[in-house]
Amino acid sequence: MRKIWVVIRREFLEKVRTKWFIISTVLGPTLMLGFIAVSIMMAEGGVAQRRIAVVDVGSGGLGEQLWRVVSAPEQWEVRLMEYEPAALERVTDSLTRAVGLEELDGYLVVTDDAIESGTLEYRGSNVSSLTDMEVLQRLLQQGLMIARLDRVGVDPRLVSEAQLPVRMRTVSIRDGRETEESAESVFLLAYVMWIVLYIAILLYGLQVMGSVVEEKTTRVVEVLISSLKPFQLLAGKVLGVGAVGLFQMLVWGVAGWFIVMRRDVILEQFGVDAGAAQAIPMPEVSGATVAIFLTYFVLGYFLYAAMFAAVAAMSNSEAEARQAQTPVVMLFVIPSILMLGILQQPGGGMAVAFSLIPFTAPIAMPVRWAGAAVPIHEVVASIAFLAIALWAVTWVAGRIYRVGILMYGKRPGIRELLHWVRQ
Amino acid sequence: MPNDAVVDIDCITKRFAGHTAVRELTLKVERGAVYGLLGPNGAGKTTTIRMIMNIIVPDAGSVRLFGLSRTGRDLSERIGYLPEERGLYRKMKVMDLLVFLAETKGVGHAKAKHDAQAWLDRLGLSDWAQQKVDQLSKGMQQKVQFISTLLHGPELLILDEPFSGFDPVNTQLMKDVVLELARGGTTVLFSTHIMEQAEKLCDSVCIIARGEKVLDGPLAEVKRTHGGKHVIVAVEQGMASVDRVFRDSSLVAAADNYGQYAELELAEGADPQRVLELVLGAGARVTRFEIAEPTLNKIFIDIVGPEAATARAEGESADA
Q1: Does B306 lie at the interface with A, CB-CB under 8 angstroms?
Q2: Considering Cα of A94, then A97, then A103, then A109, what sign does the dihedral take?
Q3: How far is A3 from chain B (nearest CA, A)?
Q4: Do B318 and A2 touch (CB under 8 A)?
């Protein structure tokens, strides 16, 4: 036990001292802060400053009605221009030049038959901006509807009233109780869990692989194995790297909690209004959620670390290990990508299946848990399956590791591997 | 009589896919001995040492260390092991590395640190203690590796090809340290394929070839019982002038003519004086005439044949 501790301590201290660790630890909270700041700015300032002309070449009236509606966004400066239909070509020529000189962002051509056909033409330098086009489309739809209703004698004020937007408050129900979580915050939590677990399990699993390959290529392993059992060395390494992962998450967690708590003060530095910062939907993270997250991180990391260690043990070099890792990486990455679907439907059949399969459960279950209520017996079953798989995988990987670390030369085939395992 | 063998190998065999690396090998290393395990590349030396260290397990036979039934790994605090393939963590600081390796052998942190500093001072590396291993020259890395073998004060040193890969200065340094430790009572078992080195250092040897023991015993005894009477002759005009004498099979059983001198193995019952007479009779001026013990190299070649002594045995890659 003392010897395992010695290995854990070396692995931990050496990894924590690397530039890679320091940079990624600092970068995590910084990126989180940036992410929040950018998403607020996008939500706030999604509509950019624009100068737009509404050119009415019809009999009049429609252009003005549309102009009034399109002028709604504060950021848009909209001019109304009325011309005879015959002047259309001349006017568009000069407006196109104005767009070219950046005096104008674009112009909308309104003809009389627009009210029947619903066809309008917008020409501008900002047509590739999805936000602009979406806003414009929505406003024009609204404008045309008002114009059409007006034509059949409906009072425009009545129309405005009828169009008052609906605001739906969403309340998440979990274990039969209402929570303060909104739909956005639930999604946010599930999404963050997905990202962090995906990155952490893969990254730290690969760290174990790198560490095993290093010991093999530098041949240190022979000295180590003369005083440590292969199992002690492997266990110490996996635990040591895992401790680095947990330590990094602790730093991220504390920093994240601090950022969330003081987001108004911090975001003010980015020029974000304090009120807007407070209004960001923040997920409610319960103790149970943290426990689920950590449990699955640890089990999932052990599972993949064992496999990566076996892959490293049968390789002679870093390059060879990178090739040999592909099946393990695929086993992890492909379901993880598919699992993005779980974010949309945390209670769906795929979510349930993935959260029970040991190789996908480490990500699927926490994501499901964050997104919806999960029956407790499913959690228990999922952890049990994962534990059994972990035991079996570790047993096989340990045997491959034990033989592999002292083997140099040709990489073993399946038949040879089976022989190693049975030895 | 209590068995005072520090290493007691009884009839061990190890097979790898396709070939037998070690076959029914038995040897004993007495306490305090400097014991040479000799043989050409691929003879099974490294495999034998790995079995002593319990890095690999013999298919048959047993290894006992210090008269105990515990494995080399369990006894690692009493054994210093220098593998044939040298290697250190490149990114670790020298001091941290030495302390870590000592700790894996059960030495306490503080003691390991203190002793590491003492050894670094002694080998002139104290300025490098806080440098990373990959910033050290090759020779310094060799010293660090050597220190890591000795740091925990082992009773038994197992050195696999200790003189290969070390530069001449470090080789000399290492010999001095090893001999000093041996005088202090440390048992040393080392393997080498260079017979001349073994001859200078060992008091007992075991020669193996193709995985099997060829002979073993105290060096003096081995020399007495093997190889018969040897004569070394050198003459002024060059050896060609006396070549005829060496071909006299009633006198000379075998001759190794090295050009500058020749080593002769005399035939049964032949008198060395008669050889001298004939050489002088051939008109040569003798500069050296010595009735000598056979060199270990000569004994080895005589017993296993020149092919075995030089040719690399099959399957060496698995053994290396």
Answers
A1: no
A2: positive
A3: 6
A4: no
Residue B232 has pLDDT above 50, yes or no: yes
A121 inside 8 A of chain B by CB: no
**Which residues from B are below 8 Å from A6, CB to CB?**
100, 103-104
| C-alpha–C-alpha distance, residues A39 and A276, integer Å | 11
Collect all residues with Cβ–Cβ distance below 8 Å to A191 and sequence separation of at least 6.
Answer: A343
- Residue A262 DSSP label: T
Which has the higher per-residue pLDDT, B294 or A210? A210
Q: Do B229 and B272 touch, CB atoms closer than 8 A?
A: yes
Whether residue A208 has pLDDT greater than 90: yes
- Assess A269–B contact: CB distance below 8 Å, yes or no: no
pLDDT, mean over chain B: 85
Confidence of residue A118 (pLDDT cuts 50, 70, 90): confident
The yes-or-no verdict on residue B186 having pLDDT over 90 is: yes
User: Residue B167 — φ and ψ, nearest 5°?
Assistant: -75, 165
Q: What is the average pLDDT score of chain A?
A: 83
Listed in sequence order, the DSSP H helices in B227-289 are 243-246, 272-281
Nearest CA to B304 among B14, B43, B22, B28?
Answer: B43
Residues in A closer than 8 angstroms to B77, CB to CB, are 227
Distance from CA of B91 to the nearest CA of A (A): 8
Question: Residue B5 and residue B3: Cα distance in Å, rounded?
Answer: 6
Express each pLDDT in A342-368 by its tens digit: 777 777 788 888 889 999 999 889 988
Q: Chain B contacts of A213, Cβ < 8 Å?
A: none
User: ipTM > 0.95?
Assistant: no
Cα of A135 vs its chain's centroid, Å: 26
- Of the candidates A10, A220, A225, which has its C-beta nearest B55's C-beta? A225
Mind giving me the DSSP string for A218-241?
Answer: TTHHHHHHHHS-HHHHHHHHHHHH
